[in-house]
Write a structure and sequence with these properties.
Number of helices: 23
Distance between the termini: 80 Å
Shape: globular
Helix content: 40-55%
Radius of gyration: 28 Å
Number of strands: 25
Low-confidence stretches: 555-586
Mean pLDDT: 84
Amino acid sequence: MRITPLQWIGKGFRMLWTVLDYGRRAILNLLLLIILIGIAASFSSEKPRKLEDKTALILDLKGNLVEQHAGTARDAFLAEAQGDTRRSIQLRDILEAIDTAKDDSKITSIVLLLDELNGGGLVLEREVAAALDKFRATGKKVIAWGSSYSQKQYLLAAHADQIYMHPMGMVSVTGFGGYRNYYRDALDKLGVTVNVLKVGTYKSFAEPYISNGPSQAAAEADAYLYNGLWKIYTDDIEKARKLPAGSVTESINKLPELLKAAGDSSGQLAVNLKWVDGLKTRDELRELMYTIGAPDSKNKSFRQIGFDEYLALNKGHNMNLGGDQVGVIIAEGEISEGKAPAGSIGGLSTSNLIRKAREDDKVKAVVLRVNSPGGSAFGSELIRRELELTRKAGKPVVISMGNVAASGGYWVSMSSDEVIADEATITGSIGVFAILPTADKAVEKLGIHTAGTTTTWLAEPYNPLRPLNPKFADMVQSSINHIYAEFTTKAAAARKTTPEKINEVAQGRVWTGVQAKERGLVDRLGSFEDALNSAAKLAKLGDNYHASYIEPEGSKLDKLLEMFNAQISATLAKHFQLALVPTGMTPAMVNQVQEDIRWINDLNNNPKGYAEVTHCFCKAP
């Protein structure tokens, strides 16, 4: 066959492209190889650091305090490559570093730097505070410094031996509670009707879509909850700082006149109230640390080691790898039905982790650490059932409640040998609801009409562009009633009482850990460490055991990045974008509206067209 000149040209271009393509791949692979060799060489050339006497551990905590990093190491690597410096800190890592430093003769002090700590909920902060107290009990010092202190940051600072602040700083202790957006009038103007079907007088999650303000029941429950949490917070501060009982609230009430008496200086006001011990700039803090620790002439500072470096240096220091294991599974975030990545809860994925622990002969007991406001009732039941099977297999199960274990977060806790909550845990909220929005009035204004033919009314029982079908609404309400009955019956069996008794403290109402203990919803108050010790005791392990975190396995790339200590973080995609942002709305306000509207969409993004939800509209302060 004769080849034309045009075909020759085409063949030449293809050959040229092949050469360029292979060359490009070879160059990229060579660059990657050079990078990996460089990293490996740097690791092999560095000798393990030897700490000197009187070294200070610098806890420069940045980002959100979490139970478990969200996403994967690859997510964090890509985020950092794009200049995203946001990060999170795992509670377990902080506790491990402080506990190791407590017994490390080279570490004689901790410097607590909290400027970039966003907080992580009252319970997690109390866990860190308790670890600092144990460190101080050995005679070692904790020094806190901040340019200012937010309410969340100050709870940790209060557990230092000495608290210092920049002279232009302030301690912002303001109280708990806040305001929510209510969309009833706005939705009426748009022609959108939000149909709410629920069980529970106090189940207030959907109120923002059907009211212009909170119901009397919701306001009563919120006040009882927040006042209980505020008492826990202020009692903690006053005890740690040796202040008179009630003095924090009294000072806030008298703040205007107290500020004037301090010469309008918020820094001097904090000193006068004994909330801080003195005002110092950062260089003055360095001078102080020369006297507490020892000078480091080489680095022109005091002897110190950073949190990340110290953690890497002592990774696994307190772990007895030869003993049996207490498997720890983190259930943090909203509960969905299927699979979910680390940092969130999936009915299937979390169940798989529980099953993995049950089938592992080395794991003798399981601790489920719950920090969730709930979500899918079905997803919650999948998890509860796996815990039930684990107990039947002869492995004890202990629930450790974190910041929030409410609604679905309480549901997953109902099959265990013991439920342990912190005083400040938000729990309960035993109730169920469904939201079915319809926009028939809106489309009517636009001149849009829907019509068609079906063989039965069930062919399309719920169409958001048509008025809600009463038959369908009755069916959904019946389903919700059934799930609520399941909820209260299972809770009654777990708590060894009757559904009627559970119903008295259910109805969607939330409680602090203290209030829940008084009402028999949890077994006792305690920490995460208490839960580990309890699980080990139930499994008759003695002291020869260690905690083993059972988490989703990452890809080979994730494992490689984790070896290089990549910071794990997740960039959450926006679920909803507002086309028009009213003038004067801050980014925080816009985000809240987006989140509220997202819920309407997500609740109905379900094969059935709706979802029965066990969710609490509650956030840890």
